Amino acid sequence: MVNEAKDILKQRLSAQHYERLIAIENSKLLRFVADAVELTNPASVYVCTDSPEDIEHVRELAVKTGEEIPLNIKGHTCHFDGYNDQGRDTFSTRYLLPAGSTLGESLKSVEKQAGTKEVRDLLKNSMAGREMLVSFWTLGPVGSEFAIPCVQITDSPYVAHSESLLYRPGYEQFRKIAASPDFFRFLHSEGELENGVSKKYQSRRVYIDLEEEMVYSVNTQYGGNTMGLKKLALRLAIQKASREGWLAEHMFVMGVHGPNDRVTYFTGAFPSACGKTATSMLRGQTIVGDDIAYLRKKNARMCCVNVEKGIFGIIQDVNSKDDPVIYKALTSPMEVIFSNVLIADRKPFWLGMGCDLPAEGVNFSGKWFKGKKGPEGNEISPAHKNARYCLSIPDLDNCDPALDDPQGVSVGGIVYGGRDSDTWVPVEQAFNWAEGIILKGACLESETTAATLGKQGVRTFNVMSNIDFVSIPIGRYVQNNLDFAKGVEKPPLIFSVNYFLRDKNNKYLNGMADKLIWILWAELRVHNEVNAITTPTGFIPFYDDLARLFNQHLQKDYTKDDYVRQFTVRVPENLEKLDRVEKVFTYQVPDTPEIIFITFDIARTRLKDAAQKLGEYISPFDLPGKQF
Fold it and tell me: Would you call 274 a catalytic residue per the annotation?
């Protein structure tokens, strides 16, 4: 079969690109590429090495094909996805599982044989007339035990260009692993195009083969459906991690800078559009990564790496006041790919950027003007709410020096947060690792946003902010997290944060910059440098500590009234939350570990006892006791 693959490749590839491919000397890889060439029938094949010249070829091709439009600042381009292709398609994303698989009950799946035939039929001749790009990348720092080699095949130069910003080069790494079968594979095609975008979006398919560690994607251009190494690879990695005893998480990694030049590394899990990137980019702190982390135990410590080296972030509400580092990058000469923003006079505009937007331009709907309506009769916004930017972290002023450390960074704290208008306080520390995993991570809920297709504003269960990507039974996934602290001398402290708490008039109780204070307080707690108040649900800050931090870091007076409104323990809402989440685990997660229900009962008892003594809404000033 290897000789047959070589014959196909020799016939279809130029001598230069054939030699690049066979230099890797990996039969599994050669068979994969040969099969993709025969299936999709491209006009030509370009095999990318790690060289700057190959990346430049991809950049130029993206502009030449019209997938990216050059903008007014050097290095900036803009890409538009189709009108109906503006987010991760959780409906058409399925796992390919053999008939009778025990995973089939808990995952959105199709029978493997039938599903493979379906998606391969859609991919048949899909690259006719276009150039196939074969790119090699590494998830995690090159040469690290965390790293996973990957090969991406696509006919979209926009996808390949984006991945060159997001991931570390992998061609030479592939040459080193030689015959190893241990790598991820991704095959993507935009399919038939109309006006430069995928025409057959209704036949969009994103199929994930867990056994083969491979992903098929067709008839879509949106990055979350096409950039294989992002959330598609996360699904593969979660299953691999479960087999091998490590964790693959939907988490940022950041360096929080405490007193006396101390740096404490935090990870954090937030659903899309809930402040994850903004937290990782907080003023005065350093970023390792904003989206996906791999965690391993090393020398009795919990260590992690950023899987990526770039950011594919939501651009809405990025402005010079609230996100100065990102805003500076987006308005400076450097390599940035904007997607689905408004373009006017070759300048990008987005929602919440802090200035008036033009009355006309070009956006994801084509030529746009104020008042333009879409097919459904609703007015089209100037830029999409899920518009994005893609850039490389080393180009940022706040890039942490540990970004590419093959050993990873030692984790001091873990943060869970979502969109929660009425329950969680702005910041709270869990009593211990198990309660942190269960009552903070496994209980995570969030109101839906534009980052996924479907209705917005619905409160949804989102275990560890990973519900869309968990490729193993949820009970096992939670148990893996619970067990991960075993053998760790000092497990990271676990915190919840909530940037979206509102009052009875639906007004936010916090400013966007306040999140810095919650994270700085958490860093002090990791080092036991501030005391905390014991509540029924965890430890919260003392007023005086927050007032000092607000004054020192935001030059802002923090009032006792603000403190009370934000940190009041809302017993009814917390009990309702426990009931909601318990129902999910009772009726939808058949393998739920018993400790989850036991922990829910303990938390419920604490809340009811507190309400009996202090009332249903308890001021932090009325809570007795300290924790040192």
Answer: yes
